[in-house]
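U., I forgot to send this yesterday:
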Amino acid sequence: MTARSTGAMRFGAALLALLNLFAALIVAFLGFLANGLRCDDNCSIAPGWRNDPAAWQWGMLLALALGILVAAVLLNIAVWVRYARLGWAAGLGQALALVFIGVLNATADSRSGGSGIFVVLALLFCATAFAATRLAGPRPSRTD
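Result:
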């Protein structure tokens, strides 16, 4: 590979990692928003943890959203230093956190929906993390 194509691949990897970080910032913002509002005006005796402001699931949603953000920061570091294992682990961590958020959403009440968005987000995080890690290339070998 030429130096020019290697540079373009690393630039593409950086853009994908930044896209991942941007999406993670949105998820973290929504996690803070959901945790702050909880069940502001609609708290009732209806079943489901979404109607209970003291439910442990609210804190778990925030923790998972922040975990997705931390993984995105780790992905950007992995792309910068070209450490593929860290990038793969970050993408896998983001996907698993979204699976758990999806499970919490499904257990909220009988009319909870929107599971499609979790699938789309999981695919976005996995695709950007794995593609960025792959495009970043191997670490340069150290010769003494």
